[in-house]
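Exercise 7. Given the components listed, write out the predicted structure of the assembled complex. Treat all entries as one system.
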Amino acid sequence: MSGRFPLFRKRDLLVFLVAFLLAAAGFWRWIPSDDALIAVVEQNGEVVKRVDLERVTEPETLTLEGDVTVTVLFEPGQVSITNSDCPDQVCVRTGVLTRSGQSAVCLPARVAVRIEGENASGADGMTG
Amino acid sequence: MKSSARFVAFTGILAALSLILSMLENLLPPVPGMPPGAKLGLSNIVSMYAAGSMGLMPALALALTKGIFSFVTRGVTAGLMSTSGAVCSTLVVWLLLGKCRFGLMGASAAGALAHNGAQLMVAYLLTSSAVLYYAPVLVLLGTASGVVTALALHAVFQPLERLRQTGW
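Answer.
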């Protein structure tokens, strides 16, 4: 049969592998929640940065300079405050935020990180 | 290819074939639960044959014909989607099949992925990020449809070659 173009060659597996990895990566990003996660970073009551966590592919840090310096780490589907110069470290100990409605606040630095869902329905929205 | 008239005629036959295949495919009722844009891509059988057997230019001509047809019959959005998808997948198939010596299945699956990828990009530019949401589903369905079209092309390859070389 079509000798010039065999139905299958070993190297075709490469294509299937890539497809599988693409799909797996895509599905993996679905898992944390079923609506878009927008991380909102506020400093002194003003929105400094908004990041769609569903679209973050590589870890990325944001350092907020001020009286107290705070470092925010954005990762695929999650956000956290990793470092703060403040004494109480409440925000760092809040840990990783993965769902809409969660927030980490550093009062000494007047920095807040919270997650907004795109649907903005809130976790306890009415179901009636 | 002996004469250019025959070449043009054969390319025309292929163009008609691909249009008819995509028309027939549109007659199939949509499967519930399938995301929009998930299609079998039967006309890829033809574009794949052209990309592998005839070369890049005739294959691109087929892709553009199909795109222009979409523009005329289904509007600007569908035209853009169709053209971008067809051109991208043609380039990929030509590269993998003709240059990199992949098998039909690999080239076909990669072509289907390129098709979906290009269409998703256009849909993303035209609308919003919402369409990227079912990209993983499209990847799986695209790979599957790529395998199906590869099997189909494998079956019809010889008759098409005979038609191209001898006229009948």
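Discussion: Confidence is low (pLDDT under 50) at residues 120-128 of chain A. Helices of chain A lie at 12-30, 90-94.
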